[in-house]
Specification:
elongated, two-stranded antiparallel ribbon, single chain, alpha+beta
Length: 164
Amino acid sequence: MPTPKSQTKYQKDDGGTYRVVYESNLDACEYFIHELTRAALRDVGKFLTKLFRNEYYSHFERHTGNAGKATKYKVFSGAKTTSPRVQIGLKTGRVEGFYAYFQEFGTHSGNVPRLGILTHAAQDNVAEIIKIESTYLSGLSDEAAALEAMVSEEDYEGDADGDD
């Protein structure tokens, strides 16, 4: 999507003098918000893939380093999408380091247990993800501050009857 054309025009008055008329261009605002959102999602993808790689090698000894390279992210923002979104996952198929997929999701036979390292990395760092996005989109900075001020779920205890 190219940058929308400028809406600056020159009009001639009755006296023969020119004046500059600027018309508000909502398309340009939408374009820049779209591009800022894409950039924020790209940085979130980089952050989570790096976090996965570090967490993976804290669990397993590094032999080839290919498991960390098996992660990828893609920001979707084509003509058919209304707003950009990011998809982060593990490559499948004939990829070196394919075993990271089995260690993330486990196997049907139960020989390899499900670790969910990428899943936990995303769930445990929601506040950091919002902080990354709020550097691009300032309206999210209030939400990031509210998330930091929240009390963790571990502070609450109770049962189904509501007894503490």
